[in-house]
Amino acid sequence: MSANKGAAVSALDFHRTTYADAAMLSDWAMLPVDQWPDEWFTYNEKSFPRLERVQLQVPEAPPSGLGREWLARRASSRTALDQMSLAALSQVLWYTTHSDPPEEYAPGSWHRPYPSAGGRLGCEFYVIARTVEGLAPGVYSYGTARHELHRLRPAATEPMLRFVFGDGWVTKTCALLVITLSMDRLETKYGDRGYRYGLIEAGAASQTVSLVAGAASIGSCVLGGFADVPLGQLLFCTPESEVPVATIAFSLVEEER
To answer: How confident is the model at residue 257 (pLDDT cuts 50, 70, 90)?
Structure first.
């Protein structure tokens, strides 16, 4: 790639410098909220006091259309969801990863409801199921082409989940959805810069999961706090070509405001 800057590290090297491990997750979780320093609650907004300002009107209601219900209440929470049905999980996976109607797209011309640079579709999806009604507990890879789950491992134990995600509510939720990036797929076209586009895609996919889950009255919480190496091993990811970048824990929907 002509954009190679020589001294710059590769995308994977950059990714590994921000790895978290179980000890780091434990440190993050040990400090109670009431002991957080003031700096953690301070956000310095960029301002331009000398420039002309245009005051915007506050909308009276959320815009109509898909997602109105999600905007009107908090569909994101940190309260474990005890159980969900396989039908609900199937719905979330389908509407996150498939266009509707699919007949409009020729075979091999993949299309999804979220943006992907160059149509490279770098995201892969995995389900860690604990208490999904109609689905045996286990670790699954989701096959988007045929809308099916492939069981990779038996149930992930709570100690194992605590090691990967820290000791918190996440280990008790009914299911987690893990999004990984296929680096080879992205770098084939964009070189190391494909990592940037992959993070954008994973963020858009995570938002789509949250919107679909919210429409089904299921809460969600997008998380980046996990121990990278053991999570990748749990999913059978090849570390040189596929890396976990986001997890979505399904949760209870908070009461309407």
So the answer is: very low
